[in-house]
Amino acid sequence: MGIIYNHVTKTFHLQASDTSYVMQLVRSGYLAHLYWGKKIRSANGSRRFQFFDRPFSPNPDPSDRAFSLDTLPQEYPAYGNTDFRAPAYQVQLENGSTISDLRYKTHRIYKGKPKLEGLPATYVENENEAETLEIVLEDRVIGLNVTLLYTVYERWNVITRSARFENHGAERIKLLRALSMNVDFPHSDYEWLHLPGAWARERAVERRPLVTGIQSVESRRGASSHQQNPFIALLRKHANEDVGEVYGFSLVYSGNFLAQVEVDQFQTTRVSMGINPFDFTWLLEPGESFQTPEVVMVYSDKGLNGMSQTYHQLYRTRLARGAFRDRERPILINNWEATYFHFNEEKILHLAKTAAELGIELFVLDDGWFGKRDNDRSSLGDWFVNKQKLPNGLEGLAKSINQMGMQFGLWVEPEMVSVDSELYRKHPDWCLHVPNRPRSEGRNQLVLDYSRKEVCDYIIQVISDVLASAPISYVKWDMNRHMTEIGSAALPPERQRETAHRYMLGLYRVMEEITSRFPHVLFESCSGGGGRFDPGMLYYMPQTWTSDNTDAVSRLKIQYGTSLVYPISAMGAHVSAVPNHQVHRITSLEMRGHVAMSGNFGYELDLTKLSEEEKQKVKEQVAFYKEIRRLVQFGTFYRILSPFEGNEAAWMFVSEDRSEALVAYFRVLVEANAPLSFIRLKGLDPNKDYEIIGSGEVYGGDELMHAGLNVPQRRGDFISVIWRLKAAH
């Protein structure tokens, strides 16, 4: 690993674990991209830049018709100086013009990785884990400096990128576009992959060839969203799960984003990512700076599984933080689908007692415990206990549950306010809104204006008071509507389009403060399920409720797609009642358990209504998951069969020393007189023998991976099988 600058060739060579990234300064200080891929020993110019006259590609130097920015692969391009492709940034000056010209000024290389002011980002635990390159580009005419930050990790094929704008001029500069990164690839022979979806069907996997023009995914919702995820990948043709080159791009941000790929007239490919320029500006006064979020770029020559495993390891150990980063997560019961808003203390304690008898470790009280919250039409913002439902308060309830041998957790939605609430009646200007326009509601609620310091201070205080009032060890932090009428009563007209990003900075401040005050609490992020399942949230909360859809068949696709980027330890997965409340499908308790055990395991149903046979099955599931959870939550994950490509799904978990594995297979619909099925396992030690626990059968790791393992023939729809393997001695 290392970052090398060659003073003679003016070349930067960044080397991570097994990848190289090469840039070069050309002509009068333009920073150009040469190579990104498999690690090379040195960059001596075997594929140097080629310049020749391209008609209708203008020339910044009139004496040289061969040189144009329109054909130069650039690191952080502008628009208007002969490059007609989409720019990485754009500014507007006080005279109304939007032309700028960044040239190399200086650079520095140092060990470690800096924090990004006010933003989540990956980190290092000691400076020898990574090296960072800062390249300062300057527009001397207007006094604009842009510092490009590159960090390479020693252990992983990872390069992180971001940009910092600084106004050293005498006039104000307005940022119209400030993306975090840009990479220009020399050809377009790629397919691109992204993770679209909707509420209750998040993170599907879509893959298609690149075409000439712009293809993009974005969010304009004020959140990363159910509809798109801040992630894309480019894949070489014929790359699959296990072989082929893959380039991944993941934005550590939870708000409006843009991920864009442009294929130009010469079949070169430009990839850019960052804060969505739509409805965004940022005013830089003289002396002020602006930091963009981080993009984590991963290279894999071992297919999608190689890319995913890199993201999993990095995000689990160098993005997630706190006491629960490396700790096994508790098995929980959430009362939401058991009671919805209709509960009292007696009903909750009855449910908790049943859960404790079955070995469940954590009881989570969901929506409805505060204010006058008997439905979703009131009381958000009124964070005080409803004593009619809970006469002994949160403290009394929590202590009663603790006495049963379980921890106590709580649902909150601190970013929202109900129109019918004491908070809104007292502070009607504390929500996002614009003058003289109606305030659109979603789920009968408005969005608090987290761009305002006094709003953030209030939330920090009231939520801290709640968490300090009782022995609470888990918090589910929800957010159930996206932004409309995005404006702030506290910002002047020229800064109104900063509101959405200022909201995110306020939210990150609130989360940083509260999670720091309560380090013993396990925080889980939620936004109508998976509507804000992004790296920005994982920095503050090490797990996310994967989807409000708990149907086992639906979850095969949701959890499979989520695993492209996010570690298993980040995925909340629960067993719910049947018919399922979202799709009304009836699946077996066994399959529901096997799917949910493929994440952070829990239940979301009325345990008191189960038969004795069902309760015994739950007890067995709980006991089994306690045996395998470290393997599931922290093992190496391999996808085997994709539910997006057929009627089956399969995946597996392998321990770090490859002495233990868990394999899960699922079939959705039965087929009459069907072909026989087998699956080839992955990640085992070919030189070890493995016993299939419970069967007494022993097979070589090489045999299981190459010859495969038979799937037992079972009748009926919605079938699942789990095999547990241990190295034989």
Measured between the Cα atoms of the first and last residue, the distance is 38 Å
Task: Count the beta strands.
Answer: 38
The CATH level-2 architecture of the domain at 58-319 is identified as Distorted Sandwich
Q: Please, how many helices?
A: 12
The CATH superfamily title of the domain at 58-319: alpha-galactosidase from lactobacil brevis
Please, what is the average pLDDT? Answer: 97
Strand count, sense and barrel status of the largest sheet are: 10 strands, antiparallel
What share of residues are in beta strands? 25-35%
Q: What proportion of the residues is helical, as a percent range? A: 10-25%
SS-derived structural category: alpha+beta
Structure description:
This protein has 729 residues and is an alpha+beta fold. The protein starts with a strand and ends with a strand. Helix content is 19%, strand content 30%. It is built from twelve helices and 38 strands. Helix 6 (453-468) runs parallel beside helix 7 (499-517) and helix 9 (552-562) runs parallel beside helix 10 (589-596). Among the domains are: 58-319, alpha-galactosidase from lactobacil brevis (Beta-galactosidase, Chain A, domain 5, Distorted Sandwich); 641-727, Sandwich (Immunoglobulin-like), CATH 2.60.40.1180. It is globular, with a radius of gyration of 27 Å. The strands form seven sheets. Strands 6, 7, 8, 9, 11, 12, 14, 15, 19 and 20 form a ten-stranded antiparallel sheet that branches.
